[in-house]
Amino acid sequence: MKRTIYAVVAILISVLIALNVAACKKKGRYDDLKEYLEDLIAANEEYLQAVERAGSATEMVKAINEMTDKSADLAKRAEKIKKQYPNLTEISKNPPPELKGEYARLNALAERLLGITGKMMKYMMDPAVMEATQKMAEQSRKTGVFQ
Question: Contact 97/28 with Cβ under 8 angstroms?
Fold first, then answer.
């Protein structure tokens, strides 16, 4: 009986310590920026995959429109990030250690985008693709966190 009580007390103490450690976990200085960058990276990766898979102008329009929709949310968040980090340009040029991975991934995505430009050009003269691209360009200006 005493062993059972000791075991229960030991488990409760362990759980309380674990909860305390979790509750006291220090928030990182750039956690919100990192979360935004991860979402931006994910959206761009999905877009690039959709563009790479596109086998018709219709599929290209769908890829572009989906990215434009995601950009609307990202644009709202970008404004908050810009206000919170007035030195964002400097951060992007010389990222702190906790953001180096995200900025490296963004740079890799930019290179990948250049690599698929030919595929995009194949459909650029299609009126629906032109219209979707124009809408995306307008939305991208709003999302421009790195400007």
Answer: no
